[in-house]
Design a protein that fits this description.
The protein has helices at residues 11-18, 22-26, 34-49, 55-64, 71-81, 125-139, 146-156, 160-166. With 167 residues, the protein is mostly helical. α4 packs across α5. The N and C termini lie far apart (84 Å).
């Protein structure tokens, strides 16, 4: 790009034509120090174990191992290596535009007595069904159908108040 050996154009003229600063032409990158390389190796090794740690946790870890290092230096080394702590970023609770919005089923229903309305978390229903499957395999040979599951639930909720809701 810039040829310092030509006498036709000065270096400053060549830099001006290329739209770069003359200081950028003269700049030489410094090699990374050996102790920085050692620190970077330790940071990288720990980052692979705990990628959620940022510069503060990493600094504390290195201090526990006997190194005198401050947070700014750890930040600089992590930035140089392209490491960043993994953590929930903003707007993670925003729903996907194609996600279905389910209706509120209790709107307009008067809840007059205790235990009239129940709720549950269905996150582990698949685990519960697989447990039922294992129990069925060991104890009885009955197909686990939705009808059987409904009968079991109906037996559990056999009080008169609860029957009113399901009927």
């Amino acid at each position: 790009m810039v040829d310092s050996s030509t006498a036709d154009l000065s270096i400053s003229s060549q830099c001006r034509l290329l739209s770069i600063n003359r200081s950028s032409f003269y700049y030489r990158t410094k090699p990374v120090k050996a102790d920085d390389l050692d620190m970077m190796r330790l940071i990288d090794k720990q980052y692979l174990k705990t990628p959620t740690w940022g510069s503060r946790s990493m600094r504390s870890h290195l201090r526990r191992r006997g190194f005198k290092i401050n947070r700014k230096r750890v930040q600089r080394l992590m930035r140089l290596m392209g490491l960043e702590a993994i953590y929930p970023k903003p707007r993670t609770s925003q729903p996907h535009p194609e996600h279905k919005i389910y209706p509120y089923l209790l709107r307009g229903i008067d809840i007059n007595w205790p235990n009239m309305v129940w709720t549950t978390d269905i996150t582990y229903c698949q685990s519960l069904i697989s447990l039922f499957e294992k129990l069925r395999f060991y104890f009885f040979d009955v197909a686990l159908t939705p009808g059987l599951i409904q009968k079991v639930i109906a037996n559990v909720f056999s009080s008169a108040r609860i029957k009113k809701i399901f009927v």
